Amino acid sequence: MTSRIQNPHLQRPHSAPPDPALPAQWSIRRASLTAGVALLLMSVVAIFGNIVVIDGLVTEGDAGQTTADILANQGLFRLGITSLIVVILLDVVVAWALYRVFSPVNASLSMLAAAMRLVYSGVFMVAIGQLLGVIRLLGDDGSRAALGADQVQTQAMMGVAAFKDIWYLGQFLFGAHLLLIGFLAYRSGYIPRLLGVLLVIAGLGYATDSLGAVLSQSPWADISAFTFLGEFLLALWLVIRARRIAATAAALEATPHARTLDDLKA
Questions:
Q1: How far apart are CA 89 and CA 112, in angstroms?
Q2: What pLDDT, on a 0 to 100 scale, did the predictor assign at position 1?
Q3: For the chain, which residues make up each domain, given as ranges?
């Protein structure tokens, strides 16, 4: 039998201590990627649901044509409603992810921005419910027999109008959300300040559309159709620069007294 004698002069090499900032970097990186991908996916789904389906099947000022088109494409109309519900789910995901991305800048404002997006999602859900009422009304033979075709068509158009009115009102909250996100992006140091400015402009566009729909006596032109660029660029930046965002944000989070990249350099 032989015994092994440990040499006291041989010591095991010490492993380097783990970087405490790594878990935060991974968390923020995942949040950045999640927010970016969800925003890009949301753009596609929302365009299909609202512009292709709802706007495509609704003829303003012509209840008869609108009713005929919806009844002839009930499956497509329901698919459009479903896609808008998916948008709500993605909105909830984005609210959480953007909170994580911008919480190192200001946790309170980031939480407020997330809350505004969540409340907006609830308002949007109520708006979508009006579309469910429309398809149910048009598919009910009893309602058509009791109310008459003209009355059913009129109520269907009122349901579509209610969907748009409620959505427009909710967009004021969405605009406020983008104003806060734009401010946080401008202050962050890991999002270009120009992008922060574009997000503020997008937020003002949505807020103006919401107020304009209420205050204007004539049909309101959508300003947000021309000011949405900041949202799209933010989504791309969050995906492409996720690693750098995570590293800088984690460093900022690890320095409680620093609130911008310039503070870290000082």
A1: 19
A2: 44
A3: 22-261
